[in-house]
């Protein structure tokens, strides 16, 4: 460097300060635009979609381990009941049964609490005077079929249908598991819809700069990576504003209607679940957003953006289906794969938060996702920089692969 | 970039400048696929100068400027701004107006200028205050709080230009700054450029209009087909072609005709020939002694246009003229 440098030379803004300049402009421009009002009423459509998704949720809940009936009758009556069940199972929609050991018969509470056996109710007493223990909803639902089976086990309808005594309990493992699955599914769908709704916005965000040539001013003044980061984080901040507003409105509705009572508290508890949900939303948003923004940088017009976004949208759907499938079997290889694959990891972990109380897996998953975000965003920014100005170094010079990915630009 | 820039710069074929250099470039090459957009460009722009990059559209002007700014990296060659190999090291000292003008349509004029200042390292509040002052100074104070979309094209261009200058740059790079401006605004821009240079700011601009370069620039780089066949002072470029003498005599014939240079040609009542290397005085003496009866004699120094034709060739000059005509027609 020669001495020709003017005193007090002013270098280009550092990456994060430049990203802040971009993010600040984008954030205020979006918030002050009329389009933001349309953005805020978007959830009206969202509610419609959620209704449809609710059906899927119910289906998913149904697919989670069906609760079984523990048969705790005297041994001979238990065998007769099982024979009656085997005979009628093909004709009626009967719950699965397990004839338990005689020693277990007097401890219905312990049977219902057995996480591994997934009992929805316990049948005690005798065939003549059966007693059904379980949650009120479950035993009311099963009492008719139990009476039928008891009558059949005693020699058929001619023997008369015995009156089934109902002993309701607070909850069973099965009902908890089913309710947690419902919460997990709801969380998963909400996360998916929010990400799909919000992350796609970043795609068209860049077309304005490309269309009105501001991109050249930006490229001359600040690192192109900063433009990428700034736009991504501005849209994330806008999304959080939207979520805060929608969340407040939804919270008011929930408090007023008590809808939340229909959902079992997630395994990690509501406060931790809410915090994890927001963290996973940010991760999911940054991961898919970096893909969308990269696509946006390659598209010359909004129409091209829409066309080019199709593969990314399909990828989002695949990720959602993978996470939905994986949540039905926590700990299975499929679920672990969904947790490990960066794009599906936030969804799978939200489902896990609803169903498993352990918090440490979330710390590990978040660390992994943060690392993935860094890789995705850096890679996206690199492609973005090359595509937007057709710039970048001559092909032979810089390092390639991972080293190039983290190289300072 | 393969070349080291260690020797004193000798851009083009002019003598090395005596002032410190704001811009030095040597052997800049940029290829886009199979096309070589810029092929070995050398430049040397002294600090405080007004410098023009003159050439037809597609000659490589914008690509050269983008390389100087660090928007794109050269495939080969080196560029140095105020002694810095990486233009980004002094991004805060540079103002850049791209050829394709662009501003956020929903932004207020004052905010647009402030945003451009913030991009160059200014605090937003300072940039906004300075933007307002600049708008007032240029007669656009009333438009400070208007959205860009509400301004006329000329006003929007002025806003962008002020955004280029808001951070008080030491080097201003303007890509086709006169493009799209009417005559009045072109005049204002010329005044502004001269004012910047008077304050010691280096101004380099690209143009395909020779008149702008001729009126404003101390130095020019003539660029055609990605190459720079000439870079140096405007005077030196014009001196590439000997001055033309136009002579009108009363006598048609006589011994005095033997004194005319070999390239003398008659067109109507006039003789045209290049000014002899020995000067006009010996010829004048011979004409008087030979009783040619001099009715008129004028010596016309070659213009930059003639120099351009001489240096870049007829084809490039034709392209330049076509661009200028198309620009005037817009």
Automatic annotation (TrEMBL), chain A:
Q: Per the database record, which ranges form the ABC-2 type transporter transmembrane domain?
A: 34-377
The cross-references to Pfam families, in alphabetical order and at most eight, read: ABC2_membrane_3
- Superkingdom of the source species: Bacteria
The signal peptide stretch is none
Task: Give the way it sits in the membrane.
Answer: Multi-pass membrane protein
Q: Where in the cell is it found?
A: Membrane
Q: Which UniProt keywords apply?
A: Membrane, Transmembrane, Transmembrane helix
Main location group: membrane
- Transmembrane annotation, as ranges: 35-58, 181-202, 214-233, 240-260, 272-296, 317-339, 359-381
Any idea what this protein is called? Answer: ABC transporter permease
Q: Which organism is it from?
A: Pelagerythrobacter marinus
UniProtKB/TrEMBL annotation, chain B:
Xref: InterPro entries: AAA+_ATPase, ABC_transporter-like_ATP-bd, ABC_transporter_ATP-binding, P-loop_NTPase
Q: What are the alphabetically sorted keywords of the record?
A: ATP-binding, Nodulation, Nucleotide-binding, Transport
Looking at the record's lineage, which domain of life comes first? Bacteria
Q: Which GO terms describe its molecular function?
A: ATP binding
The family database entries (Gene3D superfamilies) matched by this protein are listed as:
P-loop containing nucleotide triphosphate hydrolases
Entry annotated with the keyword ATP-binding: yes
Q: List the SMART domains hit by this protein, alphabetically.
A: AAA (SM00382)
Q: ATP-binding: present as a keyword of the record? A: yes
What sequence ranges are listed for the domain ABC transporter? 23-250
The record's comment on protein family reads: Belongs to the ABC transporter superfamily.
Protein name (record): ATP-binding cassette domain-containing protein
């Amino acid at each position: 460097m020669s001495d020709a440098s003017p005193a007090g030379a002013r270098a280009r803004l550092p990456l994060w300060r430049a990203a802040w300049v971009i993010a600040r402009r984008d954030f205020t421009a979006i918030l002050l635009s009329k389009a933001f009002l349309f953005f805020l009423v978007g959830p009206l459509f969202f509610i419609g979609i959620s209704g449809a998704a609710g059906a899927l949720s119910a289906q998913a809940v149904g697919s989670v381990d069906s609760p079984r009936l523990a048969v705790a009758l005297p041994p001979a009556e238990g065998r007769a009941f099982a024979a009656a069940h085997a005979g009628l199972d093909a004709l009626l929609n009967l719950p699965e049964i397990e004839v338990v050991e005689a020693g277990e018969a007097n401890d219905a509470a312990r049977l219902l609490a057995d996480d591994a056996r997934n009992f929805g109710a316990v049948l005690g007493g005798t065939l003549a005077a059966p007693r059904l223990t379980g949650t009120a909803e479950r035993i009311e639902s099963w009492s008719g079929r139990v009476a039928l089976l008891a009558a059949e086990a005693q020699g058929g309808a001619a023997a008369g249908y015995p009156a089934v005594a109902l002993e309701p309990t607070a909850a069973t493992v099965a009902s908890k598991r089913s309710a947690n699955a419902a919460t997990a599914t709801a969380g998963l769908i909400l996360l998916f819809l929010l990400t799909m709704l919000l992350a796609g916005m970043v795609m068209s965000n860049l077309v304005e700069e490309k269309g009105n040539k501001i991109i050249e001013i930006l490229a001359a003044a600040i690192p192109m990576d900063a433009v990428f980061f700034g736009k991504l984080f501005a849209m994330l901040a806008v999304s959080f504003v939207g979520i805060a507003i929608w969340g407040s409105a939804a919270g008011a509705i929930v408090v007023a209607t008590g809808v939340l009572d229909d959902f079992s508290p997630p395994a990690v508890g509501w406060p931790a679940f809410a915090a994890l949900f927001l963290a996973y939303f940010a991760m999911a948003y940054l991961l898919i957003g970096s893909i969308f923004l990269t696509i946006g940088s390659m598209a010359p017009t909004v129409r091209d953006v829409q066309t080019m976004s199709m593969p990314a949208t399909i990828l989002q759907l695949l990720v959602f289906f993978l996470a939905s499938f994986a949540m039905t079997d926590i700990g299975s290889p499929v679920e672990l794969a969904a947790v490990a694959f960066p794009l599906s990891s936030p969804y799978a972990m939200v489902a896990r938060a609803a169903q498993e109380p352990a918090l440490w897996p979330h710390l590990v998953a978040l660390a992994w996702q943060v690392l993935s975000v860094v890789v995705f965003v850096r890679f996206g920014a690199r492609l973005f920089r090359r595509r937007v100005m057709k710039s970048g170094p001559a092909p032979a010079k810089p390092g390639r692969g991972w080293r190039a990915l983290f190289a300072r630009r | 970039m393969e070349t080291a820039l260690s020797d004193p710069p000798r851009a083009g074929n002019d003598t090395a400048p005596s002032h410190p250099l704001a811009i030095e470039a040597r052997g800049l090459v940029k290829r886009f696929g199979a096309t070589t957009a810029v092929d070995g460009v050398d430049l040397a722009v002294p600090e405080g100068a007004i410098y023009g990059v003159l050439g037809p559209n597609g000659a490589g002007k914008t690509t050269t400027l983008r390389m100087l700014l660090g928007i794109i990296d050269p495939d080969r060659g080196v560029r140095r701004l105020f002694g810095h190999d990486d233009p980004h090291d002094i991004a805060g000292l540079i103002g850049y107006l791209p050829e394709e003008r662009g501003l956020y349509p929903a932004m207020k004029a004052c905010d647009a200028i402030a945003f451009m200042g913030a991009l160059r390292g200014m605090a937003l509040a300072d940039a906004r205050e300075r933007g307002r002052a600049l708008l007032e100074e240029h007669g656009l104070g009333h438009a400070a709080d208007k959205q860009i979309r509400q301004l006329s094209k000329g006003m929007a261009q002025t806003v962008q230009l002020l955004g280029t200058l808001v951070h008080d740059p030491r080097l201003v790079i303007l890509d086709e700054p006169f493009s799209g401006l009417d005559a009045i605004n072109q005049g204002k821009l010329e005044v502004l450029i001269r004012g910047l240079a008077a304050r010691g700011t280096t101004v380099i601009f690209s143009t395909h209009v020779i008149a702008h370069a001729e009126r404003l620039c101390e130095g020019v780089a003539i660029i055609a087909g990605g190459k720079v066949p000439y870079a140096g002072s405007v005077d030196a470029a014009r001196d590439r072609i000997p001055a033309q003498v136009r002579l009108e005599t009363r006598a048609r014939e006589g011994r005095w005709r033997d004194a005319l240079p070999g390239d003398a040609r008659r067109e109507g009542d006039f003789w045209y020939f290049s000014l002899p290397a020995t000067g006009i005085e010996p010829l004048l003496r011979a004409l008087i002694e030979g009783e040619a009866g001099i009715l008129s004699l004028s010596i016309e120094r070659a213009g930059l246009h003639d120099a351009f034709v001489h240096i870049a060739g007829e084809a490039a000059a034709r392209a330049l003229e076509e661009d200028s005509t198309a620009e005037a027609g817009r």
